[in-house]
Write a structure and sequence with these properties.
With 117 residues, the protein is mainly alpha-helical. The chain has a single domain, classed as Multidrug-efflux Transporter Regulator, Chain: A, Domain 2, CATH 1.10.1660.10. The chain has 5 helices and 2 strands, in the order ααββααα. It has a two-stranded antiparallel ribbon with strand order 1-2. A hairpin with a 5-residue loop joins strand 1 and strand 2. The longest helix is centred in the C-terminal third of the chain and has 40 residues. The chain is elongated, with a radius of gyration of 20 Å. It starts with a helix and ends with a helix.
Length: 117
């Protein structure tokens, strides 16, 4: 499929896909006889994963490391799993912090509600 369809399916913008490819984040993208990129369903699955990793705040350097390990093959699965586990732990800490922020905002809103009555 062409880049526009890959963008639509993955949630990424076309420019982001081009950037990710230039940064070496997308393995095995082929080109057609016209020189345009052709994306497989596997590429789109990978792009979708990149979308969510970035959306959850994974730094580009970590994404690049993850992609480099992926390109090396299945023997790197334990290392890739470690990267995802570390990221999951960071997300849990962020979630806790956001929950605390929400509690504080809720208390402040109650104070304002009392004041406005």
């Amino acid at each position: 499929m062409r880049i526009s369809e890959a963008a639509s399916r993955s949630g990424l913008k076309v420019d982001t896909i081009r950037f990710y490819e230039a940064e070496g984040l997308i393995p095995n993208v082929t080109r057609g006889p016209d020189g345009q990129r052709r994306f497989s369903s596997e590429n789109v699955d990978w792009l979708t994963l990149l979308y969510w990793l970035r959306k959850t705040g994974m730094p580009m350097k970590v994404m690049q490391r993850f992609a480099a390990l992926y390109a090396q093959g299945d023997e790197t699965i334990p290392d890739r799993k470690d990267i995802l586990l570390d990221h999951s732990r960071l997300l849990a800490k962020r979630r806790e912090a956001l929950d605390r922020c929400e509690e504080i905002l809720a208390r402040k809103l109650k104070i304002y509600e009392k004041y406005l009555r």
